[in-house]
Specification:
By secondary structure, the chain is of the alpha+beta class. About 35% of the residues lie in helices and about 20% in strands.
């Protein structure tokens, strides 16, 4: 009977160690994701390589354009007017 005692106790000890390992991995991944969320990202303005000067593909943020990237004309420095719906986007 005494020979089986270490085997009986090793199960709960290994399960506890596994739970601690999973918790440690979750904490590390959570810290990495939190660091990614806090960094602000500037809005992307993609200028075509060949085409009209002052024309760029920018996210429209208008329901009529479906919140997709559409062609915008630069009407003033930092202000873009959507070709599809006419919405003017000001710098953030």
């Amino acid at each position: 009977m005494n020979g089986w005692l270490p085997y009986g106790l090793s199960g709960p000890v290994l399960l506890g160690a596994g739970a601690l390992a999973v918790a440690a991995v979750c904490l590390v991944l959570g810290a990495v994701r939190l660091g990614r969320v806090r960094r602000p990202r500037p809005p992307a303005v993609v200028r075509p390589a060949v085409g009209v000067e002052g024309l760029a593909w920018v996210a429209c943020h208008s329901p009529s354009c479906g919140h997709l990237q559409t062609q915008h004309l630069e009407v003033a420095p930092g202000r873009w007017e959507c070709v599809g719906c006419g919405t003017v986007r000001a710098p953030a």
